[in-house]
Design a protein that fits this description.
The complex is a heterodimer of chains A (254) and B (200). Chain A is mostly helical and 254 residues long. Chain A is 67% helix and 3% strand. Chain B is mainly α. Classes of the chains: A mainly alpha (254), B mainly alpha (200). The interface between A and B is large, with 71 and 60 residues. Chain A: Keywords: ATP synthesis, Cell membrane, CF(0), Hydrogen ion transport, Ion transport, Membrane, Transmembrane, Transmembrane helix, Transport.
């Protein structure tokens, strides 16, 4: 957005290199706007949580309430989906939730870069979840973890099909987890940009256009509200699904 | 999200760099990444290694900061509050038990005091009654003694009186006889006659 003058709805997703780090092994490495926002998010989350709890007061203030609320919200989600045993994954789920939520919310600031609108980022986060499930599942249960793919009480002749279906459904989890978040953020931001572009186009065409621009303006206002909802909701969905998948690692077998 | 530029073109679909007609003074900046890859940034494979690298570093940092610093801190606060509330409830329960015990002790003390007071009252009444009884008995005995003495005295007085009556009668009879016959009877005869008359 910084360099272009054209209303280009895709431009907001542009990765801009800030510092080039050369090409070790033929791989381009650079410190980009995306990386800057990632670190900004980490810093924002960390400083918010530590600043909010600086008083460690018995009766919480507003900020401390927010910090405690986020903690208890995620904790109850983890307990609800994965049980008390799932609390060992609480830091991971909390980190994922707060990272996605903050990235989505920061993305709502005009001219800001939305980290979660890139498939590679959401895919990496989903991979973290699914690798945690697989590694923990095998470490904890050994081959018993494979019972996840063998539903009990199924007739023998159906079993091969069921196993195939279970494996496919397991493998599709990281894909759906990453695509859901990515597509929601991408589509929402593009839609807002397109309607905002209509306003600019119409107002440029004269007095009639000024009145005509009211419609897309109303649309942009509505979309902005919707996007805030989606931003929070997708972070929650990501966290809940993470908990459900982790529950499989804790309790394999149906 | 709108950009306050003047006449502008809107490109909804993927923009192919270089093929766009520059609309009235608007220039299209072609970022370096677009020059050799996908035009759609999220699918531009060339940016993936950088994004992955920084995501791994940033997320690992976030995870460490959360799991080592921020979350234990909030957990401590919540735990302290939880403990404090539990302590307060326990303290309140203890105080309530104490006050109940105190009330019970008060009731017991009141009951024992009442019983004691009752005992003292009964004892006093009994003592007083016994004392009164003794006094009454001694008084009665006293009175009986006095009565007996009085009776003895009455009897003595009566005897004396009767003796006096005989003397008077003897004298009166002598005098009457003297008056009637002019002669004084023998004292023995008069006494004998009077005794006979009294007995009869």
């Amino acid at each position: 957005m910084a360099s272009g003058s054209v209303i280009d709805p895709i431009h907001q997703f542009q990765i801009i290199k800030i510092v080039e780090l050369g090409q070790p092994g033929g791989i381009e490495l650079a410190f980009t706007n995306s990386a800057a926002f990632m670190f900004g998010i980490v810093a924002l989350v960390f400083f918010f949580l530590t600043f909010a709890t600086r008083g460690r007061t018995l009766v919480p203030g507003r900020l401390q309430s927010m910090a405690e609320l986020s903690y208890e919200f995620v904790a109850s989600t983890v307990r609800g989906s994965a049980g008390n045993e799932g609390m060992k994954f609480f830091p991971l789920v909390f980190s994922l939730f707060i990272f996605v939520l903050t990235a989505n919310m920061v993305g709502m600031i005009p001219y800001a870069f939305t980290v979660t609108s890139h498939l590679i980022v959401t895919a990496a986060l989903a991979l973290v979840v699914i690798l945690t499930v697989i590694i923990y599942g095998f470490v904890r249960h050994g081959t018993h973890f494979l019972h996840l793919f063998v539903p009990s009480g199924v007739p023998a002749f159906l079993l091969p099909f069921m196993v195939v279906i279970e494996v496919i459904s397991f493998l599709s989890r990281p894909i759906s987890l990453s695509l859901r978040l990515f597509a929601n953020m991408l589509a929402g931001h593009i839609a807002m940009k397109v309607f905002a572009g209509f306003i600019v186009m119409m107002t440029a065409s004269g007095v009639v256009g000024w009145f005509g621009a009211v419609l897309p303006l109303a649309m942009v206002v509505a979309l902005t509200a919707l996007e805030f909802l989606v931003a929070a909701l997708q972070a929650y969905v990501f966290a809940v699904l993470t908990c459900i998948y982790l529950n499989d690692a804790l309790h394999p077998g149906h | 999200m709108s950009e306050p530029h003047g006449p502008a073109a809107i490109i909804v679909a993927q923009a192919s760099p270089g093929t766009l007609p520059a609309a009235s003074g608007v220039e299209i900046a072609v970022p370096a990444a677009e020059a050799h890859g996908s035009n759609f940034p999220p699918f531009d494979v060339h940016t993936f290694p950088s994004q992955l690298l920084w995501l791994v570093i940033a997320f690992a940092a976030l995870y460490l900061l959360m799991s080592r610093v921020a979350l234990p801190r909030i957990a401590t606060i919540l735990e302290e509050r939880h403990d404090r509330i539990a302590d307060d409830i326990e303290e309140a329960g203890k105080l309530k038990a104490e006050s109940e015990a105190a009330a019970e002790a008060y009731e017991t003390a009141l009951a024992s005091a009442r019983a004691k007071a009752h005992g003292i009252a009964t004892e006093t009444r009994d003592t007083l009654a016994a004392e009164a009884e003794t006094r009454r008995k001694s008084l009665e005995a006293d009175l009986n003694v006095k009565l007996a003495a009085a009776e003895v005295q009455i009897a003595a007085t009566k005897t004396a009186a009767m003796a006096n009556v005989r003397g008077i009668a003897v004298e009166a009879a002598g005098t009457i006889v003297n008056t009637l016959i002019g002669a004084t009877p023998a004292p023995g005869a008069v006494e004998e006659a009077v005794d006979t008359a009294i007995k009869g």
